[in-house]
Amino acid sequence: MHALAAVALAAFLIVNGGAHFVRPDYVRRLVPVWLGRARLLVAVGGVALVADGVLLLVPGSRAAGGGIAAVLISVFVVAHIDGLVRAVAARPRRVRGVVGAAVEVLVNFAYTGWAVVVASAG
Fold first, then answer.
1. Are residues 65 and 14 in contact, defined by beta-carbon separation less than 8 angstroms?
2. In 10 A of CB 54, how many CB atoms?
3. What does the pLDDT read at residue 91?
């Protein structure tokens, strides 16, 4: 079961990393403006996700890959929290935008938990 969780997480990361190159304009919109250098951050993030996905596919490096995935996803949560803050500030009466942004934050916390489980299973 742990191998399946690791391989599924690897596929998830590789697909999302690939999206950084296939749909870079979409991913750049997620980068908080105050971070700057969105193009570079998207490319580096994409490479990191794909490389980590490969680590997760190799049984001997799954624990490390899971730990790295937890850190990467935690860093990406910053972008989703920024989106939530912007949604609340821009549309405080528009519940749908705020709820959608809040769900993105919560889902990313779940992804981090998934990565932690993979890391701890080794």
1. no
2. 15
3. 63
